[in-house]
Amino acid sequence: MAKSRNNLLGVGGQRKKLSRAEQQGAGSARGADRKAAEDKKQELVRRMRERAGNQAATTTASEPGEQDVSPAQS
User: What is the pTM of this model?
Assistant: First the structure.
C-alpha cells in the first residue's frame, strides 16, 4: 500500500534532551547566557531611549521660534 502524505505526525522538530541537572531544576549555562544577553540588550535599549529623549529636548529648546517672548506693554 502506498504511504499517505496526509499524515503530519512528527512534523515540527524534536524535543531537546534534558540533562540530569536540568531535570532537577538547576538549569543550564545556556539559560544563564541568554539571561545575560537579554540584560545587555535591555540596558542598550534604555541608553538609546535616554539619548533620543535628550536629543529631542535639546532640539526643541534650541528652536528660535519657541523662546518665551512677552510683548512689551505701552
Answer: 0.44
Angstrom distances, CA of residue 44 to CA of 3, 8, 50, 56: 53, 42, 10, 18
For the chain, the distance separating the N- and C-terminal CA atoms, rounded to the nearest angstrom, is 104
31-38 average pLDDT score: 86
Give 22: exposed, middle or buried? Use CB within 10 Å, 0-12, 13-18, 19+.
middle
Are the C-beta atoms of residues 59 and 53 closer than 8 Å to each other?
no
Contact of 46 with 38, CB cutoff 8 Å: no
